[in-house]
Every structure is written in structure tokens, then in C-alpha cells.
Amino acid sequence: MKKIIVPIDFSKYSEYALEAAAILAKKHNAEILALHMLEMSDGLFASSDAGQKPKVLFFLKLAEQKFKEFLNKAYLEGIKITPIVKQSKVFSEVSEVAEQHHADLIVMGSHGVSGFTEVFVGSNTEKVVRHSKIPVLVIKQKPNNLNFDTAIFASNFSEEAVGPYIKASKMLPETSKLQLLYVNVPGENFKSTAEMEQQVANFLKKADGHLDQLNTVNYVSDYSIEKGIVNFSNLAGADLIMLPTHGRKGLAHFFEGSISEDLVNHANLPVMTFKI
Q1: Which of 60, 62, 127, 130 pairs as cysteine with 247 (C-beta 3.0–4.6 A)?
Q2: Residue 119 class from Cβ within 10 Å (0-12 exposed, 13-18 middle, 19+ buried)?
Q3: What residue ranges of the chain are covered by domains with CATH 3.40.50.620?
Q4: By CB neighbour count within 10 A (0-12 exposed, 13-18 middle, 19+ buried), where does 159 fall?
Q5: In which domain of life is the source organism classified (predicted)?
Q6: Which of 18, 62, 16, 14 is CA-nearest to residue 40?
Q7: What is the pTM of this model?
């Protein structure tokens, strides 16, 4: 891991993310790209009105000063920090900036949302998870050591989840205990024990080339996949949830939902997502 991007909105949650990124940067000798997105329309920047230019420059200077003060943290000492200011708040741009700078990870803070706010507005973090092609780590609380002693990789163990599983395994320290989780739910996706075990065995043969991880697989039943993941993670004393995401958009997201985005909003543990 060489570059970590952290979107900053000056909230305490983005400070949690910045501190988490600092911990990871020190462990991996990585650079932090601190990204602030100004809530200013493109029209202001493109305007030919001479009266708008001083306003734009004023807000840019104000943002740069506030950004500089925000990045003046003791825990950032010794870490290479690259500040980046973008002119508009379009969350797909976070992924674009990450790609342009060849970042390995996006770290974001989130307070989560629920109810009507979740349906009609959604969280900024959720939007980044949906668009990002690189892994996203979501932090909800002030980070501790981020050793990730026990990590859960939750999946349906389909063939398309092989790539995310391999990436997730590489993200963890060698000392981490990775537990695999299959949540069986009522309905058309319900599987018998034999069917689940066969699917996981086929998955591991393709992903690892062997079945050494078979004894780390946990099968649980619950009323929803999200509840199953949260309940098992709490029971196992996990400190990280890892899972693949399709990044569904629009009506597909509204009607089918996205497990990863729901967990980003509702789980108290750090969540790391990997785009399928």
C-alpha cells in the first residue's frame, strides 16, 4: 500500500478517517492524499463576470487556509501529505482522483444514516462506495490501533467474488485471523448445508487452489444478510468487516438494496468494500 486517499469535509468523522489513514500510512510507509471538495458550482469558475472572480478566489483561499489548519495534527508528523482541492462536490470524482493518483485505498469517516434520510438522500460515504473501483475503508469511531486481529469476509462465494477475496486477503497483516462467512436467508436464495459447503469448496479451489481455509468458513442463518453479518461479527469479536460490492445504482439500488452500503450506514465496526 503506497497511497491512501482521504476525503475531508472538516467534520469529526473525516478526522477519524484521517487519523485511521495516518495509522495505516505509518505501518505501510504510505503517502496520504487529503482531498477537499468545494461546494461551488462549475458556473462560478466558468463565469465571464469579472465580479465573480474575486469571490471564487476568496473561497478558494479560505478553503486552503482551513484545510491547512485541519491538517496540522500531531499524528500526521513524519507522513507525506498531499493536499488536493477540487472545485465541485461530485462524489464520483473521489474515485477519479484515486485512479489518477494510483491510490490503493480510500478511507472515509461516516456517521451513517437511516429511515427517510437514507432512502432519499443517502450518505456521502455510500456514494463513494458505490462509485469506487478501489477498496474503501469506512470508519465510524475514533480509531485505535487498526491491527484488525479478527476480520470477517462475508460473501455468497460466487465466482465473481474471487477477485475481492484475493484483494481482501492481501490487505490484512499476516497476524490477522480471517474468518469467512456465508449467511443463509429464507427465500429463493436459501441453500441446504450441502449446497453451501459445495459452493464454498468450489470458490476456495478457484481462489486459493486448495481447501486450507475450509475450516475458517462459518455458516449462519438469519432474517437478512446484513443482520447475519452484524450478529456474527459481534459474536466473533471482529474488528473489521470485509465484503464485495456490486455498486448498484438507481432503481436497482432502491428495490434490491446493496448489502455493502447498508452495512456502511448501520454497522459500528469498520467496513472495507471491494468492487466486483
Answers
A1: 130
A2: exposed
A3: 1-142, 147-276
A4: exposed
A5: Bacteria
A6: 62
A7: 0.87
